[in-house]
Amino acid sequence: MSEISSLGEFGLIDRLTDGLKNVNESTLKGVGDDAAVMHYGADRDVLVTTDLLLENVHFDLTYVPLKHLGYKSAVVNFSDIYAMNGTPKQITVSLGISSRFTLEHIEELYAGIRLACEFYGVDLVGGDTSASHQGLVISITCLGEAARDKIVYRDGAKPTDIICVSGDLGAAYMGLQLLEREKVASAGRKDFVPDFSGKEYLVERQLKPEARKDIVKELAEAGIKPTAMMDVSDGLSSELIHICKQSHTGCRVYEDRIPIDYQTAVMAEELNMNLVTAALNGGEDYELLFTVPLVDHDRVSKLDGVKVIGYVTDENLGCAMIARDGGEIPLQAQGWNPLKGEKED
Amino acid sequence: MSEISSLGEFGLIDRLTDGLKNVNESTLKGVGDDAAVMHYGADRDVLVTTDLLLENVHFDLTYVPLKHLGYKSAVVNFSDIYAMNGTPKQITVSLGISSRFTLEHIEELYAGIRLACEFYGVDLVGGDTSASHQGLVISITCLGEAARDKIVYRDGAKPTDIICVSGDLGAAYMGLQLLEREKVASAGRKDFVPDFSGKEYLVERQLKPEARKDIVKELAEAGIKPTAMMDVSDGLSSELIHICKQSHTGCRVYEDRIPIDYQTAVMAEELNMNLVTAALNGGEDYELLFTVPLVDHDRVSKLDGVKVIGYVTDENLGCAMIARDGGEIPLQAQGWNPLKGEKED
Question: Which residues in A lie closer than 8 A to residue B141 (C-beta atoms)?
Fold first, then answer.
């Protein structure tokens, strides 16, 4: 890393943050002092969330381009702020950089982070940069804001509320399976060209997810405030259980209402995997899962990209999926266990 | 890491955050949702800073106890907030945990973080926990607050301002040399007992630094607002150059006014190192370096634990130390280069 270490930390930061412009009124002072300075209006609450991404635990640079990685690292944080019904405003970015990375690599990563910031209207206000003996380390913290009466927690679901989810589920997980398959196929073959034809959506969902800013906007415009909301990062099943546990409720979701893309279904067939299991437990969808009062049923049903998948019940009924044959299958949190660093079986 | 992975991320977080109580009015919702929620008064600005600490780059677990490491990881962030003349209020803690750590290890680390939070009145409001294939990773972000007209940046120093520093310098660096020496001496010897007698202060400065909350309070009580301030983490020389560069000034500091503890001097003698070089470039002192208008000279001179070490000059005079013999020695930023992961020579 001679090139980077010869720049030094401050030289590198200058280079990476060159030309940054803060677009939010709440950002008073960005990169360049002991701390960044913000001011939010008196009627605004401040939201903070953070994500740590480690090479070979959360991403594999064999098939993840650095620019995509930067974009995704920022977006997963924005998603957490939208999941509170808030708006992301600032991020800090800390990087641990191992010696095999050149300045151009880190500029690629930063280009992705900056692109995400631009697209979502977020200011990059600080961070920390260090050598790593341990592969690439990315730690991003995001600040956001919301009016107090608009914030949606996980614990507000009530029996008879209806359960909604945006977009479709399981595609990012299937994208990961596809990328892993092509990685294995390419091993030792320099001329290998991976074949993603007809599966572009899966690859995109894995490598370049978006946060559902549009859904938060739609809900606001329709005058709907969810009673509970979170983003689907660990799998629908796991997130439903979280909401129900914190809200002291149960739930029922209908198997045939779970939104699944055609490409996801084809890939599951190819891999001989259970499609619904993949959609329930796959994770990394970054869709919004939320509950609304029954009275909002008609209005929420009309929203673009939102699907009603079930309803909230009394706590003693537990969490279950109603299968196509009418039978009830208890939901289990089989999602990503980040402490194992791999999917659980 | 069977014990930890069997708890799962949420079980582990529940365990580590058990009994946490938020003490700050600004903390509305801590651990347990997609994001934490804060509210600062309309007259308050929000400060944010972040630090990434990597095993074998920033700390060596051969001689750093996990509880001390946790304490220090939090305190270095608080120090950045005090360096803005602010008050730290909330932190988020992200951990990457490799498989050699048990639950008890992580509880020790957290005990140190929680102790620091308690001592400095800071709420632990969130974080992220993950497996690491790469040694221990600690990423802490701190939020703080300050009234807008109290915030002190690095760029406000003016010619004729006087330069002050709190505490003493070089001891943490000497503590590191001592710990490294004892590590080498202990290699392969199970019965080895390190000898720190008469050098306890050096070890404490390295392993359990404190942030200068007391100095920020003293300054406020004395009605003194520094024109520029930062904390000394990379060495006095490097920090003076930062302030002068950003303020478009030069500076003169007097060699014989640089505060150095007796133990630091003894250790430098033992190691045959230049004492002033160690004090100028050692780093990790976490003292406050600040400038005040000349008119505050008498008031600042009376403050406990603060020493006047020099004055600010016009930019074209550059940054220099006035040696005991009256000669001028240009200051150089020879401090810690975190991109090399080791001290530069």
Answer: 48, 50, 92, 141
Q: List Cβ neighbours of A39 (8 Å cut-off, separation of 6 or more).
A: A26, A28, B44, B45, B46, B148
Give the pLDDT confidence score for residue B191 in this predicted structure.
84
Q: What is the pTM of this model?
A: 0.94
pLDDT of amino acid A1:
43
| Helix H or strand E segment including B172 | helix B171-186
A137, B36: Cβ pair inside 8 Å?
Answer: no
| Chain A residues with beta carbon closer than 8 angstroms to that of B132 | 54, 57, 134, 341
* Alpha carbon distance A268, A278 (integer Å): 8
Chain A nearest-CA residue for B90: A48
Residue B3 and residue B299: Cα distance in Å, rounded? 57
Q: So what's the pLDDT on residue B1?
A: 43
Backbone angles phi, psi at B312, to 5 degrees: -90, 140
**Chain B contacts of A49, Cβ < 8 Å?**
34-36, 92, 126
At residue A148, φ and ψ (nearest 5 deg) are: -55, -45
Nearest CA in chain B to A153: B33
Burial of A291 (0-12, 13-18, 19+ CB in 10 A): buried
What is chain A's mean pLDDT, rounded?
A: 93
What pLDDT sits at residue B345?
36
The residue of chain A with its CA nearest to that of B151 is: A37
| Rounded-to-integer distance, Cα B13 and Cα A238, Å | 16
Scanning every residue of chain B, which has its alpha carbon at the shortest distance from the alpha carbon of A47?
A: B37
Q: What is the pLDDT of residues A38-82, one digit of tens each?
A: 999 899 999 999 999 999 999 999 999 999 999 999 999 999 999
CA atoms within 13 A on the CB side of A339: 20
Q: Which residues of B touch A126 (CB under 8 A)?
A: 48-50
- Look up tokens 């003698």; give the residue: B269
Q: Kindly determine whether residue A80 and residue B35, on different chains, have CB atoms separated by under 8 Å.
A: yes
Contact A339 B130 (CB under 8 A): yes
Q: What are B271's two structure tokens?
A: 């190691």
Tell how far CA B284 is from the center of its chain: 6
Q: In terms of DSSP bridges, do strands A87-97 and A123-131 run parallel, antiparallel, or are they unpaired?
A: parallel
The predicted-structure confidence for A282-299, as pLDDT tens digits, reads as follows 999 999 999 999 999 999
How far is the alpha carbon of B189 from chain A, nearest alpha carbon, in Å? 27
- Whether residue A130 and residue B58 make contact (CB cut-off 8 A), yes or no, is yes
The answer to whether A20 and A83 are in contact (CB under 8 A) is no
Give the model confidence (pLDDT) of B116-172 as tens digits. 999 999 999 998 999 998 799 999 999 999 999 999 999 999 999 999 999 999 999
Residues (pLDDT < 50) of chain A are 1-2, 342-345
- Which chain A residues contact residue B47 at CB under 8 A? 35-38
> Which amino acid is located at B254 in the chain?
Y
